[in-house]
Amino acid sequence: MLCRTASDLYWVSRHMERAENTARLVDLALRIAMLPERYDRGKSEAAPWRRALDALGTGGHYTATYGTIEPEGVLRHFLLSPENPSSIQNCLRAARENARAQRGAITAEMYEDLNASWLEIRSRTWAGVRSDGISSIVEWVKSRSASFRGVTIGTLGRGEAYQFLQLGAFVERSDWAIRLLDVVGSDGEIDESGEARDAAEYFQWSALLQSQSAFETYRRLYRESVTPRSVTDLMLLRDVNPRSLQTCLNTLHEVLRAMTGGESQEVVRLAGALSAQTRYARIDDIIAHGLEPHLQATLSRLAELGEAIHAQFMVSLDAGHGQSQAQG
Amino acid sequence: MSQGYDEMHDAQGNVRAHYAAFDDWLRDTPESEIERKRREAEVSFHRVGITFSVYGEEAGTERLIPFDLAPRILPAGEWRMLEAGLRQRVLALNLFLADVYGERRILREKLIPAELVLDNSEYLSQMIGVQVPGGVYSHVSGIDLVRAGDGLYYVLEDNLRVPSGVSYMLENRRMMARLVPELFARQQIAPVERYPDALLEILREAAPDGIDGPTVAVLTPGAANSAYFEHAFLAQQMGVELVEGQDLFVRDDMVYMRTTRGPQRVHVIYRRINDDYLDPTVFRADSMLGVPGIFGAYKAGRVTLANAPGSGVGDDKSVYPYVPEMIRFYLSEEPILLNVPTWVLRKPEDLRYTLERLPELVVKEVHGAGGYGMLVGPAATRKEIEDFRQRILADPENYIAQPTLSLSTCPTFVESGLAPRHIDLRPYILSGKRIHVVPGGLTRVALREGSLVVNSSQGGGTKDTWVLES
């Protein structure tokens, strides 16, 4: 496959996954913002929105650009803003543009699906979104993402194109597993008991589960009330959760092994090491050493893996240097 | 209502036999049902993203080419004649190209003025003496045909470089099969779906000698090009890579693609970029679209370019009047297809004649395409005619003139219902070891009442084209 094709396909699924996770982030922040004030530990109305921006590392940039953080502005920033390259609208545009450049490498149904999403969100206005209700666009984005994932699984041959789409989706989703956890986890150290200290904390960790559609999985697995310890465990270390860091890293390791045919390459080594670290970690150790530093360290190792994937597959070899694997 | 030849009705207003099944269907089908199908087609074309980009408008503007639900139908016997004529014409044109880059017999015999060919801007001196695989220059040709008021077909122009539109032919058929399957059940319509297979076959045949299992790629200028949809479509249908210049490099006269597994050799390139942009080391130095060194690899016989560079000298409008002569010279046959009478304005007597009759004639730039740079005398204002007269006088060699043909009309769905609109036809001819002619082609239709301009860039639409098998 062409390097350019690999890169474009990788970004198709990164952008779709980013759109879906941004929708889930909005869902999470909306749920937290609904918390009755008497349970809120003296925080302003904008607190959940500030934390959502901070979890993406864009809080500083946002305040520098817009001055204040208020719900309406942040929602617009996440959903439709043309200035935010990662707004849902821009993600769908970028996914569709990358797919259009590579429509020969994907199925017609996949392109039609992305094109339909783009045509629809292109026509959305902020006034329209407000009058339909924010949750309706959140649900729409999740369902468009699910549709694209489904069409991909159901129609695309299991070759390199499929593998690059998987890489993009799971690199992006790994990142979000950490950042979404950070939205609630950054509130302070988790109590040694692993339990919620008050109703506000309980409510926030429940909201995280709901935004991930993981409440039922949680109940079956832990058979206990929602606790910060167990939610963190489910988000980071459990492979029953399709959106957990462990699931994403396992998938990345498997796909990279299949693509390179073994363990000898740097990408496989990095993915394998990350996956193993998560597989054999203990939640109590992570909490004891501090969740926040653990999340930050994992984020930077993920970024390293992303760069290695780029260098391995997507950098064009120079005419003078590439070793020849040519036949004929 | 309409003057001239109507494809569906004869002079007495009776439905021609090959349109009988369609006519029955029209009468059986409620208007609301037809309207629903038309809307479905539009939504579907939008969703599939079958668009072309428009130059001169906001970057990235994509438009749909309007699709018309009423097919253009050709009876079997008529098609057999056209097919034989197209084979003959394309064969002669390929022999002509081999000749002008080789022995130049036709020029030495003075059947065509030598300067017309050798001084032509489309004539590539770099191609002189180059051995072209199989002697084929124009692997994919599109020959534009019209039917005039006399009911006869005429070749309007030859397209030997990068004729486009074949993707619309295939998508139109797919759409019709979906919308009106009952019409396909009522009669035998020759299939066009084999085109991508046949294209891949002739491209593989064109590989340099001694290559087993050649790698084929389609070379596109990129997503901003007006025909990008078609480039991607063809690559996908053939199952080959769609490459841009930046994806290729040349080492030791061999062409490689940059892939995720390292460089991979490419043997045959179906290129959809013009000669000028192919190789900045040989042609336009400022081009970012092509591949440095690719022309050297081609001359060394290590890669095949289809269509061959320099093919444009064969479809030049000033060479067009001589095609019947080529057929007689190379094939010792009489031309089956007619040429439109053409005045070549480099000839003083033709120039004089044309200037006297500008309001009656169509004048075209020799290298013009897409409906640009032409004067349609009867439809032009006096000022437009005078402006054009000055342009002709400034550079007569750049123009030809032809009588205004009354193109035949075909019933077409417009706002007010079914109405006659002017059409033309572009059949596609693939040249390899054998010549494949796709039964049908792309019918373009001028959607504005009375308009003769069918080009998509000028607001024309398309129709599915049916060749009946019996």
Mind explaining what this structure looks like?
The complex is a heterodimer of chains A (328) and B (470). Chain A has helices spanning 3-33, 47-55, 59-66, 71-79, 88-101, 108-122, 126-132, 134-155, 160-185, 199-211, 215-222, 228-236, 245-260, 266-279, 283-289, 291-313. Chain A is mainly alpha-helical and 328 residues long. Chain A has 2 domains: 1-156, no CATH class; 158-316, no CATH class. The radius of gyration of chain A is 20 Å and the shape is globular. With 470 residues, chain B is of the alpha+beta class. Chain B has 2 domains: 17-208 and 303-335 and 406-467, no CATH class; 341-403, Dna Ligase, domain 1, CATH 3.30.1490. In chain B, the strands form 6 sheets. A 5-stranded mixed sheet of chain B has the order 3-23-22-19-18. In chain B, strands 13-5-4-20-21 form a 5-stranded mixed sheet. The radius of gyration of chain B is 22 Å and the shape is globular. Classes of the chains: A mainly alpha (328), B alpha+beta (470). Chains A and B meet through helix 1, helix 5 and helix 6 of A and helix 2, helix 9, strand 7, strand 8 and strand 9 of B. Chain A: This is Alpha-E domain-containing protein. Chain A: InterPro entries: ATP-dep_Glu-Cys_Ligase-2, DUF403.
For the largest interface in this structure, which chains are involved and how many residues does each contribute? A-B, 33 and 34 residues
Number of strands of chain B: 23
Write down the overall geometry of chain B: globular
Which parts of chain B are unreliable, with pLDDT below 50 for 5 consecutive residues or more?
56-60
Beta strand % of chain B:
15-25%
Order of helices and strands of chain A: HHHHHHHHHHHHHHHH
